[in-house]
């Protein structure tokens, strides 16, 4: 009787371990193949994304590369191939999470404005693609956290994707740039907060297709000041429910 009781207890513990392992594998598959959550740590994509937003990124949108496995140190455990499998082309205007070129341990999020072969340039704060100005219409000012007002514009890309941008400084160093010619297999990324974004105009440069992780789809949670969502006592005053389940253009 004692032997049978011990066997049953051992089997129960083994089943528990099996369930835990299966759950972890399922979570890894979901994060690798379907959706991966990311948090927004900076204001470079304001007003579209603000500090404290939590987003779901679809991993299948552009296929999979050696950077598709989540939460791994650089060059550890990446898929043993180069390029992409089951890949599809991103579209102009997508909000994209990618690994920063030459610093592949760093995740960035920006808007894709330039496709391979495009000529991209900023002239007096206006985005030009292939020598054609992207239409920009002034809207109501954006109200920053400190109460200051920031000029805000609605920009519409050639394929009809429309979104808001901020212009903190009408004479910033990134308002006038050289012409960038996007090489084959690469993309040109810019932040919606045009004067406060490290992007392809600066040190990010052209982003290889292989570095794309996925397309940002929706904000599923948002808390003011970038506080941890585990601080439940802050929810009554710091949550931003109006941003929950906001789909991104």
The count of DSSP E runs of length 2 or more, i.e. the number of strands, is 17
- Counting structural domains, the number is 1
Order of helices and strands: HEEEEEEEEEEEEEEEEHE
**Uncertain segments of ≥5 residues (pLDDT<50)?**
1-10
Q: Work out the helix count.
A: 2
Largest sheet: 8 strands, antiparallel
Look up the CATH topology: Umud Fragment, subunit A
Structural class of the secondary structure composition? alpha+beta
Instruction: Indicate the CATH architecture.
Output: Ribbon
Termini Cα gap: 65 Å
- Classified in CATH, the superfamily is Umud Fragment, subunit A
- Tell me the fraction of residues in β-strands, as a range: 25-35%
Assign the CATH class: Mainly Beta
Average pLDDT score: 86
The proportion of residues forming helix, as a percent range, comes to 10-25%
Shape: globular
Over the alpha carbons, how many angstroms does the gyration radius reach?
22 Å
Please explain how this structure is put together.
The protein has one domain (2-247): Umud Fragment, subunit A, CATH 2.10.109. With 249 residues, the chain is α+β, with helices and mostly antiparallel strands. The protein contains two helices and 17 strands. Strands 1, 2, 3, 4, 14, 15, 16 and 17 form an eight-stranded antiparallel sheet that branches. It has helices at 2-34, 235-238, and strands spanning 35-39, 53-58, 95-100, 103-114, 119-123, 126-129, 132-133, 136-138, 142-143, 149-150, 152-156, 162-166, 180-181, 186-190, 207-208, 212-222, 246-247. Mean pLDDT is 86; it is low at 1-10. Helices cover 15% and strands 32% of the residues. A hairpin with a 5-residue loop joins strand 11 and strand 12 (162-166).
């Amino acid at each position: 009787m004692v032997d049978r009781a011990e066997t049953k207890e051992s089997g129960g513990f083994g089943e528990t371990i099996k369930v835990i392992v299966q759950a972890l594998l399922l979570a890894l598959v979901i994060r690798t193949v379907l959706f991966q959550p990311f948090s927004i740590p900076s204001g470079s994509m304001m007003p579209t994304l603000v500090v404290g937003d939590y987003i779901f990124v679809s991993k299948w949108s552009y296929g999979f590369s050696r950077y598709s496995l989540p939460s791994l140190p650089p060059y550890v455990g990446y898929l043993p191939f180069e390029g992409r499998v089951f890949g599809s082309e991103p579209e102009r205007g997508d909000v994209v999470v990618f690994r920063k070129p030459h610093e592949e341990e760093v995740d960035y999020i920006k808007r894709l404005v330039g496709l391979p072969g495009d000529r991209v340039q900023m002239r007096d704060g206006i985005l030009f693609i292939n020598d054609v100005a992207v239409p920009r219409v002034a809207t109501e000012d954006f109200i920053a956290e400190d109460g200051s007002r920031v000029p805000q514009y609605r920009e519409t890309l050639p394929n009809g994707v429309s979104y808001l941008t901020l212009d903190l400084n009408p004479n910033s160093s990134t308002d006038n740039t050289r012409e960038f010619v996007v090489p084959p297999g690469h993309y040109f990324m810019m932040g919606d907060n045009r004067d406060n974004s490290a992007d392809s105009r600066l040190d990010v440069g052209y982003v290889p297709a292989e570095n794309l992780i996925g397309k940002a789809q929706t904000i599923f949670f948002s808390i003011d000041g970038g506080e941890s969502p585990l601080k439940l006592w802050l929810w009554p005053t710091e949550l931003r429910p109006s941003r929950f389940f906001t789909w991104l253009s």
